[in-house]
Specification:
single chain, three-stranded parallel β-sheet, 2 helices, globular, alpha/beta
């Protein structure tokens, strides 16, 4: 079983430098954490240079594929959840 966490063009803050957190683990062989175009609450690009080694940044083309409305509401769940909480949740990689 494989799980994906995908963040596309999210406003987030405050954000821990690693961006993603694993509880009780140091690797995530069955989980993919992907991110594209994340910004702070003022719209400034986030520094993703210290992101967790088990995550990656999507290219613009990859992000466009995941933005396709044909994927249905599941593809947008994380996006809407994070925005509804102002970007403040563990799902959004926030510190608190």
């Amino acid at each position: 079983m494989l799980a994906k966490g995908i963040q596309l063009s999210l406003l987030m803050g405050p954000v821990i430098p690693v961006g993603w957190r694993l509880d009780n683990a140091t690797t995530a062989p069955n989980v993919q954490f992907w991110e594209y175009n994340s910004t702070d609450l003022n719209g400034n690009p986030l520094d993703v240079s210290q992101r967790a080694a088990f995550s990656r940044q999507l290219t613009a083309a990859e992000a466009a594929q995941w933005s396709d409305p044909a994927l249905g509401p599941v593809a947008y769940w994380s996006y809407r959840y994070c925005l509804a909480r102002g970007g403040h949740s563990d799902l959004c990689g926030a510190a608190g």
